[in-house]
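Progress note, sequence design subtask.
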């Protein structure tokens, strides 16, 4: 029996050849979040207002929080073990329900979204209490704290699901604030104290690889959206130029993250004595900003492909320049935290975004997209040259 009463250890075996290897079932689990990212980008695309931005940001944070908490769990537990796989399959099913309810989460399916989210968060934590109860008292106490925090936030999620749509954002913002604050405060709980980052026995190689794979998911969704939009259009020089512009932007975003930041962070978290601290800041908090930037750029790509000619409207301007700037800011924070010094290339890129904003309304969406892509290329080349110069000086 898989769930027999025998005492079994489901934790990952550390310091072995394949200890940090990402299991295929983890990649299978990630497929649900390809769908979730697509749903959020479409939600923002169809509601390009301040209210739509707030709602999309809140839902993205919730989706990210489900994914990153699960990543922490599979960092500790071995996904090749049947009970862990079963947990992931159950979470996938709930994740599909969560994702399908995203377009109307602030409408008639708010309670469905809330129940699916709470089920995933609380259910996973309760499962972990069962899985680690005999083998890791520190992790057991940690997940007891987490469960209490998630139960409190869950009450706000469910209350928001019952509330009228115009008040839902306040309940869910409070719930998300509780969940986001949990790791920052070590899940401090009355009678149980707080955990420290040194208590979180993180496999740095695994955590870095999982985060990088999620960035690829987000970038892949952007390419899929661009390809699908381009396929439905009449093919001519203008539409092909718009498609090429969006593709170049995706490649440049990949290079900005993977050429320097990801490898440097991977090395740091794998070699530090306190990987939990880096995992909490760099991979739990900062990475959601990276994903947000990719989503906003994907929205701008779809707008540019749909209407490449004419003057750029406000929605195209803020999505194109704002998404590019947000992605650069997130990479700036990520690399600054990892390397301890601000990347000058990213500062230059942000200045160029600010300059572009002054005359963006006089440009066509195609020209605007080409210039934001050029900014990303400049940042990429500048950073690579700086890295090579530093290598020669060592």
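Output:
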């Amino acid at each position: 029996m898989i769930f027999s009463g025998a005492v079994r250890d489901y934790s990952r075996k550390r310091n072995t050849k394949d200890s940090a290897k990402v299991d295929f079932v983890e990649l299978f689990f990630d497929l649900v979040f390809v769908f979730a990212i697509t749903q959020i980008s479409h939600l923002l695309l169809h509601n390009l207002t301040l209210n739509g931005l707030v709602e999309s940001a809140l839902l993205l944070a919730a989706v990210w929080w489900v994914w990153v908490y699960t990543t922490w769990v599979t960092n500790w537990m071995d996904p090749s073990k049947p009970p862990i796989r079963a947990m992931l399959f159950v979470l996938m099913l709930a994740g599909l329900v969560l994702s399908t309810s995203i377009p109307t989460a602030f409408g008639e399916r708010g309670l469905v979204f809330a129940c699916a989210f709470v089920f995933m968060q609380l259910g996973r934590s309760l499962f972990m209490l069962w899985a680690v109860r005999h083998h890791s008292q520190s992790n057991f106490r940690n997940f007891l704290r987490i469960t209490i925090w998630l139960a409190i936030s869950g009450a706000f999620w469910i209350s928001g699901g019952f509330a009228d749509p115009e008040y839902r954002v306040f309940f869910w913002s409070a719930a998300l604030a509780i969940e986001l604050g949990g790791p920052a405060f070590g899940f401090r709980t009355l009678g149980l104290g707080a955990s420290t980052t040194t208590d979180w026995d993180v496999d740095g190689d695994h955590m870095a690889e999982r985060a990088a794979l999620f960035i690829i998911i987000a970038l892949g969704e952007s390419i899929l959206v661009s390809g699908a939009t381009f396929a439905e259009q009449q093919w001519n020089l203008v539409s092909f130029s718009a498609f090429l512009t969006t593709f170049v932007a995706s490649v440049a975003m990949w290079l900005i993250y993977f050429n320097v930041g990801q490898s440097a962070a991977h090395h740091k978290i794998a070699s530090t004595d306190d990987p939990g601290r880096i995992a909490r800041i760099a991979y739990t908090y900062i990475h959601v900003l990276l994903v947000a930037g990719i989503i906003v750029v994907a929205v701008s790509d779809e707008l540019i492909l749909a209407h490449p000619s004419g003057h750029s409207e406000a929605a195209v301007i803020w999505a194109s320049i704002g998404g590019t700037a947000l992605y650069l800011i997130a990479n700036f924070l990520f690399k600054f935290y990892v390397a301890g010094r601000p990347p000058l290339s990213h500062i230059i890129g942000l200045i160029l975004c600010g300059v572009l904003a002054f005359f963006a309304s006089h440009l066509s969406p195609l020209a605007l997209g080409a210039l934001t892509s050029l900014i990303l290329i400049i940042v990429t080349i500048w950073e690579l040259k700086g890295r090579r110069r530093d290598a020669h000086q060592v």
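The chain has twelve helices and no strands. Work on this subtask will continue into the next period as scheduled.
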